[in-house]
Design a protein that fits this description.
The chain is α/β, with parallel strands linked by helices. The chain has three domains: 214 residues, 3-Layer(aba) Sandwich (Rossmann fold), CATH 3.40.50.11180; 84 residues, Penicillin-binding protein 1b fold; 90 residues, 3-Layer(aba) Sandwich (Rossmann fold). The chain contains 16 helices and 20 strands. The strands form four sheets. Strands 3-4-2-13-14-1-15 form a seven-stranded parallel sheet. A six-stranded mixed sheet has the order 6-7-8-9-10-11, covered by helices on one side. It has a five-stranded mixed sheet with strand order 16-19-20-17-18. Helix 2 packs across helix 3. The longest helix is centred in the middle third of the chain and has 19 residues. The protein is globular.
Length: 452
């Protein structure tokens, strides 16, 4: 699908700094088109969503059409909140930063992209490998884990925790779906196994794994840098009156410490390596909405407003917005270093590099239970359609209810497990279930009608 449209974009000759424009991306047509583009390419496509809700919407649409994107998650806390992100979110972010995908689709919101991250050289250098047969001194390993931001506990349940019982060490390492149990024979690793945090029972053996930092900053090793940068940034502040400062010196991760992240690193290093774009493959393609500048500007204004509301406590000063976030013009300049596709629901004027997709909003087919034939509009549309139609219910239960209700007017509608199966079977009509908010209509090619 979309072979002619994709060839029109001439993506094989798409160079850094160049742009393409794709208009008329209505309904979920953008997800289907970008899935087709990414599936036929060896490059990474970075889609910058308008906000976190847009990320979730695109994620469900891309999965429906047959590609699972990598999501770079937001902290899910407001700027300058005295809260910390959930450890699972930190784990996901560090896993992606330390092993950025080279192809497929990466999804990130505009506000998450505008947030500075730990410098590239620190993240890629701050991990260590553990493997079967390796010599392991428990005391040395405990110190190494504490230095990496892990917490010693009695029983491991969450990311960033570890426990020691005799010759067994449990670690819930960042980037791992389950905690890992290390069983020693004397001072040599005899076995490595995943285990269930709830039941504590082992599930799967492995030969090696990588331990990533538990935090996005060096809480222990970065204390001297933090002290120097704090004095440099807030020369009139009395650090003894700031409990966050005192907690850092004692190695305690106070809630909200993430908004002091730049102070744990050299200033020049933060300036050079703290944009998420630093981690992206050189030949990746960036996809943004036409409103991306407005989205970034609106987020920046919100950050500045929250900073102004909170900066007047001289005993507990906060880091300036430009050190924590990237200003819109600077971020757009960084994005323009990559090949960039600009997407819009509206059509673009015809010129070189422009593709206006033959997509329309799917029809809203009203169901009126008071009428003698409540599904008359659905039957009329499907009878008139000169192309395949896929109906999408919210759940398996709703799918069966719709099938029963439509049987009298449309006969038996076949089930399909996926959009790919619908295409493969070349059915005129079928029904499936998926969390799809938006359908699509491609003129004379395809209709996907969602229940919403």
């Amino acid at each position: 699908m979309f072979q002619q449209e994709i060839s029109q974009l001439n993506l094989q000759q798409f160079k850094a700094g160049e742009k393409r424009w794709i208009g008329c991306l209505l309904g979920s047509s953008a997800a289907l088109l970008f899935k087709e583009i990414a599936s036929q390419s060896t490059k990474l496509y970075v889609i910058v969503a308008r906000n976190n809700q847009h990320v979730a919407q695109l994620e469900s649409e891309l999965e429906f059409y047959g590609i699972k994107p990598t999501i770079f998650p937001d902290w899910e806390i407001l700027p300058y909140d005295r809260l910390s992100p959930h450890q699972d979110i930190v784990s996901e972010r560090l896993a992606i930063l330390s092993n950025m995908p080279k192809q497929g689709i990466l999804l990130v919101s505009a506000s998450t992209l505008a947030q500075r991250v730990a410098p590239y050289s620190w993240v890629v250098g701050e991990h260590f490998d553990i493997r079967i047969g390796q010599k392991l001194d428990l005391e040395t390993q405990k110190k190494q884990l504490v230095q990496a931001g892990y917490r010693l506990v009695d029983t491991v349940y969450d990311h960033g925790e570890f426990a020691v019982r005799g010759s067994i060490m449990d670690i819930f390492a960042s980037g791992q779906a389950q905690p890992i149990r290390i069983d020693l024979f004397d001072d040599e690793i005899e076995s490595l196994k995943f285990f269930d945090a709830e039941t504590q029972r082992t599930t799967e053996a492995l030969k090696n794994f990588t331990v990533l930092p538990a935090k996005e900053f060096p809480l222990k090793e970065g204390r001297s840098t933090f002290r120097d940068r704090y004095a440099e940034s807030f020369p009139t502040a009395n650090p003894k009156k700031n409990p966050i400062y005192q907690d850092v010196l004692e190695g305690i991760a106070t809630p909200g410490l993430e908004f002091y992240l730049p102070l744990f690193f050299d200033k020049k290093l933060m300036e050079a390596q703290s944009l998420l774009t630093t981690y992206l493959p050189q030949h990746c393609v960036v996809i943004t909405n036409i409103e991306v500048e407005d989205d970034l500007t609106g987020f920046w204004q919100d950050v500045v407003r929250r900073y102004e509301d909170r900066r007047h406590n001289i005993d507990q000063p906060i880091v300036a917005p430009e050190e924590l976030f990237v200003q819109p013009n600077q971020l757009l300049q960084a994005l323009n270093q990559f090949p960039r596709i600009i997407a819009s629901a509206e059509p673009f004027e015809s010129k070189a590099g422009v593709l206006n997709l033959a997509a329309e909003l799917p029809p809203k087919l009203a169901v009126d239970a008071k009428k003698e034939q409540p599904f008359a509009a659905v039957k009329h549309y499907i009878d008139q359609a000169q192309h395949p139609v896929l109906l999408v219910a919210e759940s398996a239960g709703r799918r069966e209810t719709l099938k029963d209700a439509l049987r009298a007017v449309l006969g038996e509608i076949p089930n399909v497990d996926s959009f790919a199966q619908f295409q493969q079977n070349q059915l005129k009509i079928a029904i499936t279930n998926a969390p799809l908010d938006r359908g699509l209509l491609l003129s004379k090619q395809l209709s996907v009608i969602s229940e919403n």
